[in-house]
Amino acid sequence: MALNDAPLGKASDYPDRYDPSLLFPVAREENRRRLGLEDGRWPWFGEDMWQAWEVSWLKPSGVPAVAWAEIRFPAASPAIVESKSLKLYLNSFNQTRFSSPEQVADTLVSDLSSACGAAVQVSMKSVDEAGAAPGRPTGFELIDDETVSDPVYEYAPDSLTAGTEVVTEQLCSHLLKSNCPVTGQPDWATLMISYTGPKLDRAGLLRYVVSFRQKQDFHEHCVETVFTDLMARCQPERLVVCARYTRRGGLDINPWRATEPGHEPGDRLVRQ
């Protein structure tokens, strides 16, 4: 389906009766072709971990229930799900009766897997449970105070350089900002980069992060762009790129891409 057919950026009714047809898939292929990647051969492992904070339905008695959900889309799925369509879909549970949280989770798994074309994982979480929320990802060094004499606000991959010393580092920046390609609304994130390879020039990396400030792209595409640029220009032996975006409309999206499987984005951050 064409992106201009998506509900994003348009006035919408907010149905409160279960309706899986509200989900709007967006193919990943076009963005990956822009990165020079074709034929399903992606140079990463990864997933898009969404946190949905506004999940509600009716118990069999008619009394409402609330929860939040952790939803994991595999990076190998043919499509992502447009975020406003997911919000509308979740709202459609509000006046629908389900026998249990497990039935809600099973419904989410079935519908979201069908929409994105791959197996999705869903975990239902109680809103009554406390959770960790650090400001900075544990073990990461912040680069935001590096000296950058000539910041630019248009995408500048040539800012990335590396030396000859091989190191293992975990770097982060709270300054990643991009804009929704449909509405132009700002999207804010903490970017995390873990790597082994030639030592990254931190000022150049910060300049690169800032250069996304006017870039129009989806969260998942921005992470794949960062991963692809770092691999092409700095040639690390091992690389993990993750972005923890702040929530919008009760949803936050946390994509990660890595040269090896098994990486998690860690605990949510305080501004999520």
Question: Explain this structure to me?
Answer:
The protein is α+β, with helices and mostly antiparallel strands and 272 residues long. The protein contains 5 helices and 10 strands, in the order βαβββααββββααββ. The model has no long low-confidence stretch (mean pLDDT 92).
Properties at a glance:
272 residues; alpha+beta; 8-stranded mixed beta sheet; 32% strand
Number of helices: 5
Order of helices and strands: EHEEEHHEEEEHHEE
Q: Total strand count, please?
A: 10
Main beta-sheet annotation:
8 strands, mixed
Widest beta sheet: strand line-up: 5-3-2-10-9-8-7-6
Architecture blueprint of SSEs:
Blueprint: E1 25-27, H1 29-34, E2 45-58, E3 64-74, E4 79-81, H2 83-91, H3 101-116, E5 121-125, E6 141-142, E7 162-179, E8 186-200, H4 202-210, H5 219-234, E9 238-245, E10 251-258
Summary?
The chain is of the alpha+beta class and 272 residues long. It has five helices and ten strands.
